[in-house]
Structures are given as C-alpha cells and as structure tokens.
Amino acid sequence: MMDFLALAGSRYSMRSFADTPVPEELLEKVLEAGRLAPTAMNRQPQRIYVIRSREAMEKLQQVKPCYNAPLVLAVCGDTSVACDRPVVGRNLAEMDASIVATHMMLEATACGLGSVWICAFDTERLARAFDLPDTTVPYMLLALGYPTEDCQPSPRHTQRFPLEDTVTVL
Ligand SMILES: Cc1cc2nc3c(=O)[nH]c(=O)nc-3n(C[C@H](O)[C@H](O)[C@H](O)COP(=O)(O)O)c2cc1C
Description:
The protein has helices at residues 4-10, 24-35, 54-63, 93-110, 123-129, 163-166, and strands spanning 46-51, 71-78, 114-118, 136-145. By secondary structure, it is an alpha+beta fold. The protein has one domain (4-149): 3-Layer(aba) Sandwich (NADH Oxidase). Bound molecules: flavin mononucleotide. Flavin mononucleotide (FMN) binds at residues 12-13, 15, 116-120, 153-154, 156-157. The site of flavin mononucleotide has 12 residues, from strand 3.
C-alpha cells in the first residue's frame, strides 16, 4: 500500500497517451472516488460525462484535443443544485467539482493510470457540443489512460515552491 504523500508525489500531468483503453473496472473505481468526495452541504452537484465513444471523442476533438487520451471525464457542476447561500457569497459548484476531480485524479494514480487536468477550453462550446443542461457548467476535463513508452513529466512537475513561500503561520 502506497502512503498518501508517495501517491501524490508520483502523479504528474500526462500528455502522451498510449492507445490502450482504460479497463472498465478502473473507470468504476475512479468514478467511485469522485462519488465519495465531500461537497458543500452534501449537495453533490457534480455531473460527470464519460467521453470515450468514437462519436463523443470526435465532438470533444472539435472543442479541445486531449493528447489522444482514450478516455476523458468532463467534470461539470449543476449550479442550480450546488450550495449558493448568501452567507457564502458565491455558488460552490466549481469548488465541489474541483474536489471531485481531485479525488478521481488521485484514484487514477492509485490504479496505475495517468491523467492530466485540463481547463484551457471553451466551456460554452463544450456545453453546446454535448447539449448540456443550461445550469450545468463544465469546469475541467480529466484525460485518463496509460503512458506511451517515452512519456515524461514536464519540468514543471518538480518545480514546487518551498512551504515558506505559500504558507503563513499566524
Ligand atoms: C486548475 C488546473 C488547470 C490546468 N489546465 C491545464 C490545461 O489546460 N492543459 C494542460 O496541459 N495542463 C493543465 N494543467 C496541468 C498543470 O499545468 C500541471 O499540473 C502543472 O504544470 C504541474 O505539473 P504536474 O501536474 O506534472 O506536477 C492544469 C492543472 C490545474 C490544477
């Protein structure tokens, strides 16, 4: 069993995917990890679209090519379901979706899969391509699969600031 810091450290953004499909049982584990994620007031506003059929992949390709990954999860949030209390001052669908996506990304690592989290896409075009309901906003794409033989982490993977740059003890 890998300890959590070792698991977190072994994950890197994979941008070179082999053709090998993601086994069904691993997809189920990844989705289950997302289901277990905490959400504000337990509203569970996440809406996850599994993109892997040829037809869905072709639609995605028009909006955002995802490094030829064999499977992509479009992680969305239904803003009409998410916690949106005046006291918070904002709708928490994106925060909830981020936690769900993080759970899934790290479970993918635990399953021996690679992943990359993608935000650089036109959310409105994606919503139109997949005919999403009006209140369902796509926040991130999580591309999943196995690495090609020559796949390497980018130099950014090892560039992390020391804790004193990002943590203030008061
Ligand atoms: C919120 C967020 C958005 C990101 N968007 C993209 C993206 O659009 N395309 C991409 O190739 N990588 C994207 N990444 C991956 C980051 O570039 C990557 O995590 C960072 O450079 C650190 O590298 P590492 O993941 O290999 O450790 C994103 C990551 C996060 C957390």
